[in-house]
Amino acid sequence: MVMLTSVSTLQVPDRLSDRLAAFLRQRIESGEWAAGHRLPTEQSLTVEYGVSRTVVREAVSRLKSMGWLTSRQGSGIYVAAAGPARALVFDPAVLTSLTAVLQVVEVRRSLEGEVAALAAARIDPAKAREIENALVAIDSAVAMGRDGVEEDLMFHRTIARVTDNPQFEGLLDFLEQYLRDAIHVTRANEAMHAEFMRQVQAEHQAIARAICKGDASAARRAAVRHMVNAVHRIERADESVRAALRQALQQSASNSGQPRKSAS
To answer: For the chain, which domains are there?
Structure first.
């Protein structure tokens, strides 16, 4: 019998079906179960993993909704063939820890750098005004007592939009759903530490300045630096803030009954 402990160093929700889904998905991703492989019977999985039939059904249903498994009438459940139409999705079961938040920021760091560089290469006066307005909106929100998180996210989406490639904005929109809770909590930390807030403001200004000047190399460096510093701010947050962040992530996981997919 395989005990359903953590599938990795990341924390996972208490739902056994999420844990089982993560285990089964690992077997697919590792190649142990190739496309077309027939899954063991429901009874076999209950015995192997020491869970109820309900847990097995929920785990299988989750993987089917994510495109990893498919049913064949009267035959059973099979590993689905990889196809171009599979939706982009991060399994919520592994997005509930500080470690996972930092991993998503790493993904975003790679994307943001290239988006900023491309925005700089394609800048024009109208686009520069859009970026400047988005930057002003952050400061205005903070001045009115709000945390400015939505305006912050809009600033980055505006940069993506001026690349004239809508796929970038879609990707950022997809990633930010996994970071919104963390940004709210860390922004509260920044509000308590004026120096952090000044750092974020200066980083945003550096990105905007480089893009509006059409300096792709400087824009890339500024955007990457912003993401690197975002990681440092999370890592250096007070324990009270880190505890609040962990609580927010766990609450988000408990409220997520289904995997979150991109809108495309």
So the answer is: 16-79 (1.10.10.10), 89-261 (1.20.120.530)
